[in-house]
Amino acid sequence: MEDRRVIYNKQYTIYKLMTEIRNSKPYDLEERTAMFAESCRDFVKKLPKTMHNFEYGKQLIRSSGSQAANYIEANETIGNKDFTMRIRICRKEAKESCLWLRLSDIGANEKLNKERELLIIEAMELRKIFTSILEKSKPKFND
């Protein structure tokens, strides 16, 4: 009987943590991810028109928009597994955005280089946030 109570308490704690994560200012991060996607779109518009940038730009727009859309989906999930999957996709897409930003050819444009650096920093911060959300939503059985 004692073991059941411990397991129930741990499950309740996990449920409470997941609820707090979902309800703690979800719209702030929704807005931040949307703004990142918009900034990436604007950055792509400024890139030199080369064959490489055309492909990298398309991929950047897709990955930055995908992490924003999947975060919105994560806030509307039906269960913990769905929530975790959506956040993992967000993290993956943020990581991918870093790659496309890095591969973009900006030439000798210093202003564009600064903008790219800021976008890479933002993508890395978003990735860290998604990683933190995932780690906090993991069940803890060692308590």
Fold and architecture overview:
This protein is an all-alpha fold and 143 residues long. The chain has a single domain (2-137), classed as de novo design (two linked rop proteins) (Up-down Bundle). The chain is built from five helices and no strands. The chain has helices spanning 2-23, 26-46, 51-74, 80-103, 110-137. Helix 4 (80-103) packs antiparallel against helix 5 (110-137). The model has no long low-confidence stretch (mean pLDDT 83).
Please give the CATH architecture: Up-down Bundle
- Can you summarize the main beta sheet? none
The outline comes out as elongated
- How many domains comprise the coordinates? 1
Please give a quick description of this structure.
Helices cover 83% and strands 0% of the residues.
List keywords for this structure.
mainly alpha, 143 residues
Itemize the secondary structure elements and their pairings.
Blueprint: H1 2-23, H2 26-46, H3 51-74, H4 80-103, H5 110-137
Helix pairs in contact: 2-3, 2-5, 3-4, 4-5
